[in-house]
From TrEMBL:
<dbReference type="InterPro" id="IPR023286">
    <property type="entry name" value="ABATE_dom_sf"/>
</dbReference>
<protein>
    <submittedName>
        <fullName>CGNR zinc finger domain-containing protein</fullName>
    </submittedName>
</protein>
<feature type="domain" description="Zinc finger CGNR">
    <location>
        <begin position="129"/>
        <end position="171"/>
    </location>
</feature>
<dbReference type="InterPro" id="IPR010852">
    <property type="entry name" value="ABATE"/>
</dbReference>
<dbReference type="InterPro" id="IPR021005">
    <property type="entry name" value="Znf_CGNR"/>
</dbReference>
<dbReference type="Pfam" id="PF11706">
    <property type="entry name" value="zf-CGNR"/>
</dbReference>
Length: 174
């Protein structure tokens, strides 16, 4: 499955920030690492900015856990908060591409626009391709890029843990 840049990378950043926002031991370094993993042009994130971005991440997490019919309203709220206004940008030698915040926007506002825009594209194009891991106690947000779009777990590791636990339960009851 190939997504457009915002439905793909923007939604992936949203998933990673949503998951990161659930942890208590994170700060600017971890937020910046997420941005860099997804090739966002952020060179720095202050602790104050990290607090705001992680609060945003908790709002993003709600989208991943919501039923598909509720996601549109949640993403519209995110878009309104991000005050998204798309425009085509050319910077750093990159080809023209969409931005959802002005060139003069701060780092936090750029993260808001990028993630809200990514989720908006995904919810419009493939609303069933995002979710929360089905393994009890995991809660990791994911974007389903599998071929058949039937992913239920954040990783093969979580899916295997569930399968092994179910197998052992069947063996014990036999």
């Amino acid at each position: 499955m190939h997504f457009n840049p915002y439905g793909g990378s923007g939604a992936q950043v949203a998933a990673d920030l949503a998951t990161l926002s659930l942890r208590a031991d994170v700060g600017a370094a971890e937020v910046l690492a997420v941005a860099r993993t997804h090739a966002m042009a952020l060179t720095e994130v202050t602790e104050d900015e990290a607090v705001r971005i992680l609060a945003w991440g908790r709002r993003l997490w709600e989208v991943f856990g919501a039923p598909p019919g509720r996601r549109v309203d949640l993403v519209n709220d995110l878009l309104a908060t991000a005050a998204c206004r798309p425009y085509i940008s050319r910077h750093d030698g990159r080809p023209p591409h969409l931005h959802y915040s002005s060139e003069g926007a701060g780092r936090v506002e750029r993260v808001y626009g990028y993630t809200a825009g990514g989720l908006a594209h995904l919810v419009c194009e493939e609303p069933d391709r995002l979710g929360l891991c089905a393994r009890e106690g995991c809660g990791v947000a994911y974007v389903d890029t599998s071929r058949n779009g039937r992913r239920r777990y954040c990783s093969t590791r979580c899916g295997t843990r569930v399968a092994v636990a179910e197998h052992r339960a069947r063996q014990a009851s036999a």
